From TrEMBL:
The keyword Phosphoprotein does not apply. Keywords: Lyase, Metal-binding, Zinc. The lineage of its organism: Eukaryota, Fungi, Dikarya, Ascomycota, Pezizomycotina. It comes from Sporothrix eucalyptigena. InterPro entries: CENP-V/GFA, Mss4-like_sf. This is CENP-V/GFA domain-containing protein. Residues 18-141 form the CENP-V/GFA domain. The keyword Endoplasmic reticulum does not apply. It comes from the Eukaryota. Belongs to the Gfa family. Coiled coil: none annotated.
Length: 177
């Protein structure tokens, strides 16, 4: 898979809408930038994989399209000795999931998938906690909750929820009579 160079993050954590938002790890060893400040969507995922990677009750992902300069990543970043490590694993969908993390502090940065035909899935998920959003441009409250069949916390009936993926349709909530 060809991997162009990511857009370098500027010195300021705040970004104009066309410059994107800074993605960084806990130690500051990795600084990337999203292609713009307007994501395709935000999800809080309650699947067991996201709970494990976040060490929390759910994982938050903010989605952008894989665009030149954003994803695929520059091979130098993921090469031995580079700042970003990769874990690959099969997904239930048949896709191969690429999970990128900072080699210095271990913070998960983003996930991307290759479909069974070898093409890149049309979304890259940036881990929510790795995004600097000092101007509050992301609407965290409107995030959809996915894989709620695995949820370990109570879910509000006002949240948009899905038993598995959004593609599978919304969760059926029985009405009380």
């Amino acid at each position: 898979m060809a991997e162009p160079t990511p857009t370098p993050a500027g010195a300021s954590p705040s970004a104009a809408a066309d410059e994107g938002l800074v993605i960084t790890c806990q130690c500051g060893g990795v600084r990337l930038r999203t292609p713009n400040a307007t994501p395709l969507g935000i999800c809080h995922c309650h699947c067991t994989e996201c709970r494990r990677q976040s060490a929390s009750a759910f994982g938050t992902s903010v989605y952008w399209a894989p665009t030149e300069g954003f994803y695929p990543l520059d091979p130098a970043l993921t090469a031995p000795g580079g700042p970003i490590g990769t874990i690959t694993r099969p997904a239930d969908s048949g896709n191969t999931m690429y999970c990128y993390f900072c080699r210095g502090c271990g913070v998960r940065l983003l996930h991307a998938a290759t479909l069974p035909d070898g093409s890149i899935r049309p979304t890259v998920s940036v881990k929510g906690g790795a995004i600097e959003d000092p101007d509050g441009v992301l609407d965290w409250a409107s995030a959809k909750h996915i894989f709620v069949r695995s949820a370990v916390i109570p879910l509000s009936p006002t949240w948009e929820t899905y038993d598995t993926t959004i593609a599978a349709g919304p969760r059926h909530v029985p009405t009380k009579e």
